[in-house]
Amino acid sequence: MHELAVTQGIVEMIVDRVRDRRVLAVNLAIGQISGVAPHAIRFCFDLVAAGTVVEGARLHIDTPIGRARCRSCGLDDLVVEAPIPLCGCGSADLEVTSGDELVVTSVEVAV
Ligand SMILES: [Zn+2]
Predict the structure, then answer these.
(1) DSSP for 46-99?
(2) N or C: which end of the chain has fewer CB within 10 A?
(3) Cβ contacts of residue 19 below 8 Å, gap of 6+?
(4) Would you say 44 is a known binding-site residue?
(5) Which amino acid positions bind Ni(2+), per UniProt (predicted)?
(6) Domain count, the chain
(7) What's the CA-to-centroid distance between 94 and ligand 1, angstroms?
(8) 28 has which bridge partners?
(9) Phi, psi of 17 (to 5 degrees)
């Protein structure tokens, strides 16, 4: 399961950064065209966090919409929903500007 590995990577990265401090909340941004399902991450999170300093942390997930710029006609606010997006001009030469990210935006730790 792809999301399990992704969640493990996220939790390991956080554990590594916060050392022994207790994590209260984790904020993620999972772009809508990142190929990762937020509900699956949520499902895996408690499982993976168990027994670590991340256990019991609140998980907040933002899902930024996919956006791209067309290299052919220069349109720069295309909303991307399909896995292989096309510009209105017919071009598939698009540069994704947002929505394909999977990042930990912030982590709240106990002081
Ligand atoms: Zn175009």
Answers:
(1) HHHHTTSTTTT-EEEEE-PPEEEEETTT----EEE-SSS---TTS---EEEEES
(2) C
(3) none
(4) no
(5) 2
(6) 1
(7) 8
(8) 61, 104
(9) -80, -40
DSSP 19: T
Residue at 31: amino acid letter: G
Domain, as residue range, for 62: 2-109
CA 42–ligand 1 middle distance (angstroms): 36
CA 95 – ligand 1 centroid, Å: 11
CB-CB contact of 1 with 41 (8 Å): no
Of 37, 39, 36, 13, nearest in space to 26 by CA:
13
- Asked whether 80 and 67 are in contact (CB, 8 A), the reply is yes
